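User: Some background: our group keeps a shared notebook of sequences we're curious about, and every so often someone picks one and asks for a predicted structure to add to the entry. Today it's my turn. The entry only has the sequence so far, pasted here. Could you supply the structure so I can complete it?
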Amino acid sequence: MTSIEGHLNTLIWAKPAVFQKNTRLFNVSWCGALLLTALVSGCGGGSGGRDPVLGFGNGTEGAPILVAPPGSVNPGGGSIAPDGSVTPGPVTPGPVIPGPVTPGPVIPGPVIPGPVIPGPVVPGPVTPVAPGTACLSAQPDAPTVTATNPTNGNQSVSTSTAGAPGDGKFVEATFSRDMNPTSLNSMSFSLAPTGSAAITPTMVSYSVPTRVATLATPSALLSNTSYTVVIQGSATSSTGVPLGCGVTWTFKTANAPVATLSPVNLGAAASFGAFGGIATITNSGLATLVNGDLGVNAASTKVTGFRDSGGNVYTITTDNNGLVTGLIYTLTAPPGSVAAERVNKVSIDALDAFNNISPGNRPGGLDVSNPAQCPSCGGALGGPDQLAGRTLPPGLYKSATGTYDIGGPGRTSGNLVLDGKNDANAVWIFQTAANTGTLNVGLTGPATPAVPVQVQLINGAQAKNVFWYVPAGAVIGTGSTMTGTMLSQAGITISTTGGSPPTAVVTRLNGRAISLGAGVTMTNTVITLP
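Assistant: Of course. Here's the predicted structure to add to the notebook entry:
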């Protein structure tokens, strides 16, 4: 034992001495313990100055080992065993807060072109041409379309064709050469409202004798609607030569009529080509011919210049001798008839017909000069009362001025065309003003107009269904062709006398001239009952 160890034992086991100073006690044994602690901490053997016995060597041994007191708690939630081992507690991950992402530069890679595979070549359409227009890309012997029905640009086409199944419409094209019927079908011949899809036809046919291809629609077309027709350039002749260019044309259907007009019943007046009411009937010239009956509700002396098929003669001369193919009726004629019976009945029935077509009985007539009322009537043209130059569908028409002119001093030529729309029962009624309304057609006088005015009928229109309400009278110019039944309370004049005998050319009336209260005068006039 070293001297230091001896000192330690002495200090530890020595009997404590007690000092007293200022009444305070001081324990000497506790001072010895304190001194021992100082020695252990600061002294030792070996080259490092510390003794191995105290746990410290010469500096080559391990560093001091810190041992936590048994039972201590690890901050992570684990525990420390008495032997110093640590049992870790559960780890609860905290939230992940991503940092900012900075995209790096995009470095495009090399472009390696793939193989080019050519697709099929689809030729573009050849611009269609109008009917009758040359196709520059066609072969010299290529067929062409020479005519169409409806015609190109027609603005008043009927919505249906008489006899077509389902009240449909026939559209036709006539070719210059014989065609291959199989090349004309629903794919090569089409009809559509302009700007809309094509109508599926019920039939596309071809007539070899007439060279006419016909497309039939399943129902009536829309009224007041534009349509486009196309025949593809692939349609071929009977020898296989194609049209080359497609053919196209347009038309517009007529405005729908306000209402279907009922026929006008003339009764006993129907067989009369001319009737002078309670007044007169006078003829000038040798060319006058009335195909029907003629009469007045007056004495036989009121008829001059006529003879009838019964051999009855009424004041004829060498210059004035007209023929009536029927009979002439007066209050006392023909001989053997019941006095006044026939002419009284004619007067009554004619008055009923006159009232039937009056504006008071049939209101709502269309103004031909007003496009809003009649888009297909042509607008103002020569004036609101002017009918020349117009093509009119069936309907009820009322004069905006109270009178009607067809030609006249301001318009010496031009025709009125009545389009029946392939309806044999289509009716036209023209109304002038009650009491004062008149009708003037062409020019009167011995000279023949360069182009006499005509009232023409097309597409099934019939003269028997055309009526004129003219209470203040009518004047039909020399050389004109008038159509329809004129009903008036005043006089009706057909052409005028020119020389002796009259030299005026024939004026024609396909209808009737019936006056209720005044005379009928004619010169070289041919009247044909419809």
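Suggested note for the entry: The mean pLDDT is 82. The helical segments are 3-13, 28-42, 341-356.
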